[in-house]
Amino acid sequence: MKIYNFKDLTKQQIKELCSRSISDDNLVKSRTEEIINNVKSNGDNALLSYTNQFDNITLSSLFIGKEELAELAKQIPAEVKTAIDTAYQNIYTFHASQLKTENSVETMPGVVCWRENRAIDRVGLYIPGGTAVLPSTFLMLGIPAKIAGCKEIVVCSPPQSDGKVNCYIAYVATLLSIEKVYLVGGAQAVAAMAYGTKTIPQVYKIFGPGNRYVTEAKKQVQNSVAIDMPAGPSEVLVLADETAIPSYVAADLLAQAEHGTDSQSILVITSNKTATEVITELEKQLVDLPRKDIAKTAIDNSYIMLVENLKQGMKFSNTYAPEHLILATESYEELIPLVTNAGSVFLGNLTPESVGDYASGTNHTLPTSAFAKAYSGVSVDTFIKKITFQHLDNKGLSNIGKTVETLAEAEGLQAHKNAVSIRLRNKE
Fold it and tell me: Choosing a second label site near 327 at 20 to 30 A (CA), which of 175, 226, 291, 356?
């Protein structure tokens, strides 16, 4: 990992370090556009062709139904089933607390306003299944969708080498009462959910992380369908000082690095000595990882930032706006008010980012690529619309009528004024 010193960098250099742009972005854009257009024109045939091309699988059906999912789910090892059940309960408990009924407000006598929640009727969930199969993402998306009350949940996930999904995905599907899982991955899955095919229904909003093609596809279909957020390669920023434990920090950096070669694991640290110890630990732990080649490439493309103090480190972190922020310091409480841009935050030396990925209860579908400056992670709110209502009685019409007439006339919108005036005259 290359080491930088914050005090030696210009604003432009810091901006470049915080950029996640990759040299072949234009190639990804053009290829994604081609895939989307093909799916729009050729529907299921395009999906089957891409599955053959990208996954080396010839499918006889584009989905697995309820009965087969139940059979596949029976293959799950007991220990994994118990772990998924625990994660399900924690995630459900945390997200259920987010569903709240708001009180009505009388903004002036006789004028009452309020909001009510309505679930998005049909949503699409993309569950990655390329270099790593992620049943945890299925939980993170499916649970809040169920709590919100979405009537139809369309699930797309790439097929495994046997042309099916693994038992973990199947078991989560049974927990969530999902009756079909569509065997489609990549940009083509996003296109199918956005525009619909003979087999896959068109949805109103698409959720879920994925590779660069999935992220680009979500961006390109936004004129036709809503998306949860722009989400790309995984990233973590660890802010540490001399109270951090080097082996823990190294483990956290590698946990993100093993997601993919384009993941970023950034260490911002006040202690050069601790930074050196972290590098030693990285080399030691990397050797034993099954995905060490992926992790090593990601680590080689990441860096360490030396800062004078934790406040300076927080300044850099807020500029970077990480998906995951770990405050590896005993002084984490002092830093909480300073956090303005982050997807999810992990406090102290005993809180690894992995707990948020799997089972603490918070959602792991989070904004990346500095979108944490404007986006939140997935929650129950992401699956609902908030519709406003208002009601006026005679007193309310009298109290607010003149205000509306005056403003409408000032804007030159006579019909707007008349809609109030006609009611006021009828009261007299």
Answer: 291
